[in-house]
Amino acid sequence: MIKTMLHPLSITAYMATIIVALMIVFPNVTLDSALRGVSIWWEVLFPALFPFFVFSELMIGFGLVHFFGKILDPFMRPLFRLPGIGGFVITLGYISGYPVGARITAQLWDQGLLNRREGERLVAFTTSSDPIFLIGAVSIGFFHNSDLALVLAASHYSGAFLIGLLMRFHDIKAERLEQSQFSKATTSSISNYRQSKLYAALQAMHQARLMDGRPFSVILQQAIQSALRLMIVVGGLVVFFSVVLGLLTEGHILHMLIITLQHIFQWFGISGSAAEAIVPGLFEVTLGAQQSSLINLSLQHQAAIAVAILSWGGFSVHAQVASLLSHTPIRYMPFLISRIIHAILSVILLYILWGWLGPVA
Predict the structure, then answer these.
(1) Which of 209, 233, 291, 305 matches a 20 to 30 Å C-alpha distance to 134?
(2) DSSP letter string over 9-49?
(3) Tell me: the pLDDT tens digits for 113-139?
(4) Are the C-beta atoms of 298 and 326 separated by less than 8 Å?
């Protein structure tokens, strides 16, 4: 009986029932939270993500992904055990922020350019905050301290790079079965790179363009349609989690979670103030990062909590990534584990780098 009650589906059903009950009890909060979610989606996420979604579709259609794949293959395989096209995902993922890395990874899997193992490795360390949000919103907007941006960025993106190095050992047993073929392919790749790297890359791009065969007008139209469908999904998830967070706050459930975490922290000698930012940050990055700047702790500890929240991503981002990968065999669990490790590594790096890159007191 107890096992049935603790089954994941049963827990989800209970949580859904609680949320629906709260929606009935607090209809005004539901409406206000939904409007706030729509506002965030329309004013922030849509202009920030939509161009990148269209741009990634166009680059794949024109074969530019294959061009970068040829150029970067000799570097990506030794470092991350990924094909060269992974460099394209890393670049766009870090520039545009979550969940663009997951989106492009799913596109490359659809094209047959990645396998499941490579996709899981790639999503694990290309899901990060974009520099504009980290610098403009967090450092300047929330902390009112532009000098904080350097140490936040260094710890956050260095942590992501370390996750990439760690993930090269992900699913290593299956990799060893292909080790002999991998060694031959790598040797040949490096040889070709040294001889005529640009010609080989251009040739690969040209062949990919011929295989695609769609005219520019069709590629552009389908890219916009695909990007709009994806933005609707992202918007729906943002509104959903905005409503959930609003209801949990109004129903004092979030407050109960904060108090519980404060007691746990006290056992380990950690200030209970940290829970006031960590609990909202578990659900949503923006709210957690903002709250981290308001808690009664030193700037260094506030920044550590903020970078942990940025690296974790929030359940809202997790849901977006899971939705984008749902039609692929790429699993969510490696991504979840990587987010936890990324948060821990980023905090450690921030404390290490604070003396060199942190704001001057």
Answers:
(1) 233
(2) HHHHHHHHHHHHHHHHH-HHHHHHHHHHHHHHIIIIIHHHH
(3) 899 999 999 999 999 998 988 998 899
(4) no
What b-and-e string marks burial along 8-28, b requiring 16 or more CB atoms within 10 Å of the CB? eeeeeeeeeeebeebbeebee
Q: 285, exposed or middle or buried, with CB in 10 Å at 0-12, 13-18, 19+? A: buried
**CA dist list (Å): 118 to 35, 98, 129, 172, 177:** 38, 18, 21, 11, 15
Task: Give 261-294 pLDDT, tens digit per residue.
Answer: 998 988 888 888 899 999 999 998 988 898 999 9
CA distance 343 to 162: 12
pLDDT tens sequence across 330-347: 999 999 999 999 999 999
Q: Residue 191's pLDDT band (boundaries 50, 70, 90)?
A: very low
Distance of CA 128 to the CA centre of its chain: 4
134's tokens: 């980290």
Residue 114: DSSP 8-state: -
Helix, strand or coil for residue 358?
Answer: coil
* CA R_g for the chain: 22
Q: Could you tell me how far CA 103 lies from the centroid of its own chain?
A: 10
**Long-range CB contact pairs, 36-45, < 8 A, 24+:** 36/242, 36/246, 37/235, 37/238, 37/239, 37/240, 37/241, 37/242, 37/243, 38/235, 38/239, 40/238, 40/242, 40/286, 41/231, 41/234, 41/235, 41/238, 41/239, 42/235, 45/231, 45/234, 45/235, 45/238
Average pLDDT over residues 168-193: 57
Measure the CA–CA gap between 294 and 222, rounded to whole angstroms: 44
